[in-house]
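#lab-general

N.A. 3:47 PM
ok so I finally got the sequence cleaned up, no stray characters, all 266 residues accounted for. can someone with queue access submit it? mine expired

B.Y. 3:52 PM
send it over

N.A. 3:53 PM
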Amino acid sequence: MIIDRNNINEIINKTGIRPDKDYGQNFLSDSNTSKLIVDSLEIKSDDYVLEVGPGLGSLTHFILENHAKTAIIDVDERMISFLNAVYKDNKDLEIINEDIRRVNIQDFTKIISNLPYNITTELVNYFLIYGKKAATMVFMCQSEAYPRFSDLKGKEYGPSSILVHLLGTIEKVKVVPPGSFYPSPKCTSTVFKISINNHDREKAINVYKLSKQLFLNRRKTIYNNLSTYLKDREKALSILEKASLKPNLRPEEIEYSKFIELFDLI
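B.Y. 4:20 PM
back already:
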């Protein structure tokens, strides 16, 4: 079923399903945008696709057009009941009522989600860490959150961006205006694509974990943060010297590749 501006009010009125603020729900009601988002995932028939937070199925319809094995997961029982009724005869689809953070996602090759605004960063990190076979991920988030994953300097640059760039590349697909949703949020949304090209996942994740420790206090210097982490000021200073990093730099002033070097030295 295509979800668009012409039928979304009818569906909501018939089912009584209204967006829940606690789940950060806004239903995508622009079918052209929905198709573009799914097309950017580049689904092949032999893919195993995961969609998280399908809502009324705005993206689901276009995902299933590719005839790939697909699982959709939502914590909201109302959405699960609706989608079970709509897609009860579709053999390619598994519908799961669960919190995604309790689901084993390691076998999926493609991941897509209109991310809940309140746990955007947590979920992207979760997908990157545990989606071990996923070659491509496409997400939509509040536009102000996008720099957390794309920026390589400045106040939004941090562990999440480091993890993204350690594992692959990121590109902006589309900016989506508030009017493309029901109800209209008070912000624009950004669709972005992460392509995984680094197969040394274990090291990338360990470097990410180190960067989390070194970003714990962004206002302190890298020397102070590293000293706290190592519990050894002399060793911290020695490592920074070997990495050609000035002790008075702050974490956001250090390019992401330097965190790999720090990890190797430690």
